[in-house]
Amino acid sequence: MNKKVGSDKLKKGILYIVAVLLAAITFLPLIITLLSSFKTNEDILLGMFSLPKKWVFNNYPSAVETANAIRSIGNSLFVAVATLIATVIIALPAAYVLARKPYKYLKGVYFLFMAGVMVPVHSTLVSISKISSSFGARNSYFFLILIYVAFNLSQAIFLFTGYIGSLDRGLDEAAKIDGCGDGRMLISIMAPICKPIIATEAILVFIYGYSELIFSLILISDSSKYTVSRAMLNFTSNYTTSYGPQFAFVIMSMIPMLIIYLLLHEKVESGILAGAIKG
Amino acid sequence: MFFSSSKYRKTFLKSMLFVLPGVAITVIFVIYPVINTFWLSLNDWNGVATSPVSWVGLNNYIKVFTSEKFWNSMLNAVYFMIGGFVVLMPVAFGMALLVTSKIRFTKFFKASYLMPVMLGTTAVGLMWTFMLNSDFGIFAQFLRAVGLGDAVINWLATPTVNIWCVVLVNEWMYAGYNMLIFAAGIVAIPGDVHDAALLDGCTGLKKVIYVIIPLCKNMFMVFSVLCVTGCLKAFDIVWAMTNGGPIDSSATPAVLLYTQGFQYKLMGRSSAIGIILLVLGLVLSVLLNNVIFKQDRE
C-alpha cells in the first residue's frame, strides 16, 4: 500500500514538473521581451538573457513618438469594436429568421453563409483590392470593417442560429400571443437571451479584428491609419538599429488583449472552443 | 388563399429584410470576389485600374504549376502540416491531459497555455524574431555560453531552417488553442468509463492509449481538419517573421500569392494561386470529412 502511495506521489510530481516546464516555455519569451524593453541598445546587444544593467524607461515614449504606437493601437481597437458591433447587429436578425421561420428560401441563405466558411480570405485578395480601388475605398475604415464583417458573418450566424435553435419555442409563442412582432421579439426577447453567445462571438471577432493583418496590408497605405500589426511591421523593418523601442511597441500592442484575457479568461476559453469546433 | 394574405406577405418580407444585409455583404465581399478572382486568374493584369486586362486562358495556371517557387511553397505548407501532426498534436494533447488531470492549479496552467493565442500573430512573430536573432537572441547567447558558438547561424535567413523556425513558433502560439479542443473531448468522457477502467486496473499511460485516445477520436478529427486547412492559409506568422524570404524560400502558398500579386504586380498569377488554394482546401476538407463519416458509420 505504501509503495503505491509513493509511486502516485512520484507520478504527480512528474506531472507538476511537466506542467511548470510548459508554462515556463510559454512565459519565457514574454518575460525576456518585457525585460528588453527596459534596456538600452548596448545592453540588448550584449545578450537578451539578463536583467537590465540600467533600467531605462524612454523606450516607451520613443515608440509612441516614432512609431505612432498609441495611435495605431487606438486604430485597431476602434476597428475591432466597430467590426464586432456590426457583426452582431447584422448576424443576429438573420440567425433569428434562419432558426425560427419556415420559408424554403432560407435553406439557400443558410447554405450561402456556410459556403462562406470554406472560402479562404486569400482567394479574394486580388478582387477585393480591385473593388476597393474602383470605389476609391483605399484607406477607408468603413470598407475595411465591412470586409472584416463579411469574413466573420458565417461563424456568427452559425453560432447564433445554433443557439436560438436550442431555445424553447414556447417563449416565442407566448410573446406572439401577447402581440409581439418580429422586431420587438428580436430586441426585447432574443437579444437578452442570446447574451452569452453574443459575448462568445464578440470575443472571437475582437481577437480577429485587433490583430488582423492581410487586409490592412493591402487596403491601408496611409501611415496615420495603420492598424497595430501593420504599424509594428513597418516600425521593425524601418528602424532596424534601435531595438529598445521595438520591444516596447511589441509589449504595448499586447496590453489590450492581455487585459481582456485577465478579466475574461473563462469566457475567452469557451469562446475560442466554440469557434474551433464549428468546422 | 393563405399565401396571398397580407399578413403572411408582411412577415415574409420582414424575414427577407432581416437576412438581407448579411446576404448582401457575403455576396459582395466573399462570393463575388471569388468568382472575380477566378476570372482574373484566366487573364493578365498588372493591378492598375486603367491598365488592360488581357485574356490568357490557362497560362497562369501552367506558369504556377511549372514554377519552382510554387512547389517550394507547397513543400513549406507540408512542413507546416508535418509540424502540426508531429509536434503540435502531441504537445496539445499532453497539455489537455495535464489540465484535466488531478493535479492542482489546472485553471492557472490552462489559462497560461492559451495565453499566446491572445497576443496577436504579428506580435508573436516579431517577439520570436528577436529571440532567434543570431547576434543577441536567447538561442545564440545560450549556444555561445555552452561553447557551441559555431552552431549559431542566421536561422531565419537559411532556407528550410527558417520555415521550421516559423513552424515551431506557430506551434508555440497554437498549442494552447488545440489543447482546448482535446480537453473538451477528454472532459466529455463519462465518469463510468473512468470507473470501469480503474476496476480493470487500467491506469496511467495504458489508460491514455486504450481508453482516452480512442474516445477522443472526434477531437483528433477536428484537429486534423483545422490543421490541414490552416496550413494552406498560413500567412501572418510567416510574414511577420521572414516576409517569406530570403528569395521566397520560406514562403507558404498564401505568402507567395501576396508577393506575386502585390509586389510583382502579377495579379493573374496571384489569382491562380488563390483559386488553387480554394480548390485544394475544399478537396482536402471533403476528403477528411468523408473519412470521419466513414469511420462513424462503421
From TrEMBL, chain A:
It is a multi-pass membrane protein. It comes from the Bacteria. Keywords: Cell membrane, Membrane, Transmembrane, Transmembrane helix, Transport. InterPro entries: BP-dep_ABC_trans_perm (IPR050901), MetI-like (IPR000515), MetI-like_sf (IPR035906). GO terms for biological process: transmembrane transport. Residues 73-264 form the ABC transmembrane type-1 domain. The chain crosses the membrane at residues 14-38, 77-98, 110-129, 141-164, 185-210, 243-264. It holds the Pfam family BPD_transp_1. It is found in: Cell membrane. GO terms for cellular component: plasma membrane. Belongs to the binding-protein-dependent transport system permease family. This is Carbohydrate ABC transporter membrane protein 2 (CUT1 family).
Automatic annotation (TrEMBL), chain B:
Keywords: Cell membrane, Membrane, Transmembrane, Transmembrane helix, Transport. PROSITE patterns: ABC_TM1. Residues 74-288 form the ABC transmembrane type-1 domain. CDD domains: TM_PBP2. The keyword Flavoprotein does not apply. It is found in: Cell membrane. It is a multi-pass membrane protein. One of its GO terms (cellular component) is plasma membrane. InterPro entries: ABC_transporter_permease, MetI-like, MetI-like_sf. One of its GO terms (biological process) is transmembrane transport. The chain crosses the membrane at residues 12-35, 77-99, 111-130, 136-156, 163-189, 209-232, 272-293. Belongs to the binding-protein-dependent transport system permease family. This is Carbohydrate ABC transporter membrane protein 1 (CUT1 family). It comes from Faecalicatena orotica.
